[in-house]
Design a protein that fits this description.
Length: 353
């Protein structure tokens, strides 16, 4: 069978597709991942075939992101990001290239992440089955029907969810960037796109400064849109990289500082790593609040109090216990390698109907 996977830009949007695409590839099916041209690095890193389509220019979307950052209302932020960007400019520019690719490839099904909105229209035009792979942890959308997800019911209890878990990946161990220190490792990531959307370098410098006074090792990743050297001097216990595979970090992390993004939050919860969340926009405040409600972390408004919050999640075992409970729930999901069988069966049933 042939499967076309489609995503908008950003590792957090591509990441939910990758386990499903790799499962299809391992099962011997033909797979292509389509995304904006700039996303090729994320797809190539996963070892998957890539096809690029157009994306709006920085001149067009920078003023929109500036309004997102200027707003203090999460609802307004979400309306701008989802309505004007994902459903608007991004989908408009993606549609011609995605339609042309689907006409050439003639896939048996299209699978798209939640905020890639050109695929449903392409499927409608070409008469192809379309499946949504949820990129959010929680119920941020209201579309009916079944969908594929890696999220546990603790975050997304919707009855249409078909839940899977990612198979373990073997990654090379982290380098010793801290000269033999055995202090707890704190992983800091504000996602793959925040640095390119106006939050760099101020947010990152403030976080590094706050954690510089703690007896911890800090690994801070920036994403691929900026260079590590642009951050400037950081405390001696803070090491900065553009990109490190999260599968290599999570087994060693004692805590994570993040922005409440769905992909990184899920990775931490699946590994049983407690979180200190500094949400920025979109679904991040909801995710951060849910982590706190489940006893798996602490939510902050900005980096004020970050050092105290990290001390708390490291020192109080209840936070790690809360994260471990969610990790156990995720471990009961079907393995992602069952997904090609499910998809083939479900697609055949749809055609028969």
């Amino acid at each position: 069978m042939r499967f076309l996977f489609a995503s908008t830009r950003g590792a957090a949007h591509i990441a939910p597709l990758v386990p499903f695409a790799l499962a299809c590839k391992r099962a011997g099916h033909d797979v292509i991942v389509a995304a904006p041209h700039s996303a090729w690095e994320h797809v190539a890193r996963a070892g998957l075939p890539f096809a690029g389509f157009d994306f709006p220019s920085d001149e067009e979307i920078s003023p929109i992101w500036a309004r997102v950052k200027a707003s203090t209302d999460p609802g307004e932020q979400n309306r701008i990001v989802r309505g004007e960007l994902f459903e608007g400019a991004y989908a408009r520019d993606a549609y011609p290239g995605l339609l042309a690719l689907a006409r050439r490839m003639r896939p048996d099904a299209i699978l798209h992440e939640t905020e890639e909105h050109a695929s449903p229209r392409v499927g409608e035009v070409l008469g192809l089955p379309v499946w949504r792979i949820e990129c959010y942890l929680g119920p941020q959308v209201t579309e009916d029907g079944p969908f594929l997800t890696l999220s546990p019911a603790a975050f997304d209890p919707r009855p249409g969810a078909v839940r899977f878990r990612v198979r373990s990946q073997r990654e090379a161990p982290l380098q010793d960037w801290w000269n033999g220190s055995r202090a707890p490792l704190v992983y800091v990531s504000f996602g793959s796109t925040a640095a390119g959307n106006g939050y760099f370098p101020a947010l990152y410098r403030a976080a590094a400064k706050a954690l510089g006074g703690l007896d911890v090792r800090v690994l801070m990743t920036l994403g691929t849109e900026v260079e590590a050297g642009e951050l400037g001097p950081v405390p001696a216990n803070v090491h900065v990289e553009r990109w490190v595979p999260q599968a290599a970090v999570m087994p060693q992390a004692a805590a994570m500082v993040g922005h409440g993004g769905s992909a990184s939050t899920l990775a931490a919860m699946a590994a049983g790593v407690p979180l200190v969340s500094v949400p920025l926009y979109a679904d991040q405040p909801w995710n951060a609040a849910r982590v706190a409600a489940l006893g798996a972390g602490i939510t902050l408004e900005g980096v004020d109090g970050l050092a105290d919050a990290v001390r708390a999640v490291l020192g109080d075992p209840l936070y790690r216990d809360g994260a471990a409970r969610i990790a156990r729930e995720i471990s009961t999901h079907a393995p992602v390698d069952d997904m090609p069988w499910f998809l083939r069966t479900a697609t055949d049933s749809r055609r028969a109907a």
